[in-house]
Amino acid sequence: MAYIDLQNVTYTYPLADKPSIEDVTLSFDKGKFYAILGANGSGKTTLCNIIRGFIPQFFQGDIKGEVKLQGKNLSEFSLAELAPKMGYIFQNPFNQITGARDNVYEEIAYGLEKFGVAPDEIRKRVDRVLEMTNTAAFADKNPFELSGGQQQRVALASVIVLEPDIMVIDEPTSQLDPQETERVFDIISRMKEMGKTIILVEHKIELIAEYADEVIALENGRLLTSGPKEKVLSDITLKDHGIDMPPSVLLSEELKKRGIETEYFISRKQMMEFLKTLVRE
Ligand SMILES: Nc1ncnc2c1ncn2[C@@H]1O[C@H](COP(=O)(O)OP(=O)(O)OP(=O)(O)O)[C@@H](O)[C@H]1O
Ligand SMILES: [Mg+2]
User: I want to staple 22 with a disulfide (CB 3.0 to 4.6 A). Which of 137, 217, 221, 262 is the partner?
Assistant: First the structure.
């Protein structure tokens, strides 16, 4: 049995004239890292909101089909029951900040307080996460006074500190520099090693190619393709559907066109290994 299961899910926002998610059937296994790709407006955030249970519990509109978590209809869980199981990192980090506390340290601790974690344990976990997410330097600042990139790191920190089993993460690196972006991917892969299920919306295809297990691609609210990254990212035709391909795949495609027998390099690392063998020959 899949951990999270969507069966023929169609969802239309209130007053919208067409569905934003249409006839999507997908399943997620526990402990895997899924990346969701798709052009702007293809339905990535909407899909995340469905998985998180915000649709239909928070957003109105019309949802059809079934969404199950561990075999049970998601609608049978209250949002309060889902909160400790599922972390959600919003596309806009501003939406993540509760405003209930006036510095970053307390903002990150807030969820743990709400869940009734003991103060000693809160301090330990928050300190660890401050270090992990490189947010310690502005722990005393008001979260609303931070830059977008800093807010994005605080948003991530305030969710990973809760250690939820499932993490739904919507474009967490859009305002980060390459070094901070890589750090986020490193944190996410550490979460995966802890057995967490990761569902990530992200445009940075080279990092997806390196870190993710499975890739899901959407187009106009419909499922374009899904499967292991090796399969999905070697389908060069996805380019025609607004999906960026890793440069390493484009290179292998060029080599093939020139009659050089090679597999598709999914990650940069694979490509570099191949290039080294050419130099050696
Ligand atoms: N609250 C809403 N009410 C009505 N339509 C909406 C609402 N939110 C999103 N939509 C529409 O649903 C479609 C999918 O939007 P969604 O935000 O899920 O796409 P996305 O893939 O996350 O886009 P982006 O890359 O810009 O974040 C779009 O056509 C969008 O205009
Ligand atoms: Mg979005």
Answer: 221
Distance from C-alpha of 126 to C-alpha of 259, rounded to nearest angstrom: 55
136 inside domain? no
Domain that holds residue 260: 246-281
Whether residue 196 is contained in a domain is answered as no
State the total domains in the chain. Answer: 1
Coil vs helix vs strand at 172: coil
Asked if residue 38 has its Cβ within 6 Å of ligand 1, the reply is: yes
Is the beta carbon of 24 within 6 A of some atom in ligand 1?
no
Measured in Å, residue 127 CA sits from the centre of ligand 2 at: 30
- Report how far residue 157's alpha carbon sits from residue 134's, in angstroms, rounded to the nearest whole number: 9
* Crossing angle (nearest 10°) for helices 148-160 and 178-193: 10
Ligand 1 atom nearest the C-alpha of 43 is 18
Q: Is residue 197 part of a domain?
A: no
Assess if residue 59 is contained within a domain: no
